[in-house]
Amino acid sequence: MPVKNYPIKNDTDWWPKLAIKWKGITDPVRPSRDDLEIYDKLLRTSLGGIKKPKILVLGSTPEMRDLAHKYDAEVTIVDINIEMMIAMSELMEHKSNIEKEIWIKSGWDAVPLAGNYFDAILGDAVSSNMPWEKSKLWMAHMATLLKKSGVFIERAYVHIDNKNVEVLIDKLFKRISAKGTINKRDLSILQILLLDLSYDDETKIVININNKINISRFKGVYGDKFIDALYQKFNKLFPDNPPKMWRAVTENEQDIIFSKDFKIIDKMPSGSFVKNFIFYKSIKK
User: Can you tell me the distance from the alpha carbon of 54 to that of 211, in angstroms, rounded to the nearest whole number?
Assistant: First the structure.
């Protein structure tokens, strides 16, 4: 596949490590089967009868790439890390499509692509990956890349109230305790909930400072043995103190942000156990 490289100043060492572990991560960190059906429906109703649509995928998420190829599309991938692109390619369902892709190593906010070119832009939880200082320019730039009838579809991560987060964590722990086993989906659900528990209201940034401290808050209810065993498994998949911060806003704030450069034409919640993901389908203004 053609690969174009553009210099990135960010420290990207963390991304290859994430790619190695990605196979062991499930929904809601990755889109679920139900989520993919929503993505497919939103994309299908947008593309209509367009032959060989042009689709831009933000990031290397294998599920998004497989979905784009389903429409016999010209698929362009933009990611800041080549190792991530390569590692995620191994998780694609139809690996023969990889050679058809156009790969671009670049940040999303400055990727030098032609304007008014793409029929659709797909991204899973991409808004929360953009730093605040780049978020406005990024959204405006994405709008310029779309055709007039083009759509931007994202399962966006949003912040929910911490009291609701604690209720969901308690519900999850009760479920794990009752069945007596901990699976990868339990750990992936817990990752999203702990990220939200680490949300800073002033900066609107999620900083996962110390999962051990956050999980240990529940020792009084579930006991040391249960919590310690849970943390040991969790920390192998999601280590403490990742060198990464996530931007997060409430659903209402996300609506306002999208509405600056886009018109929201469809919106629905993910059916996940957690309540942090909202699907947006938007067209540029």
Answer: 41
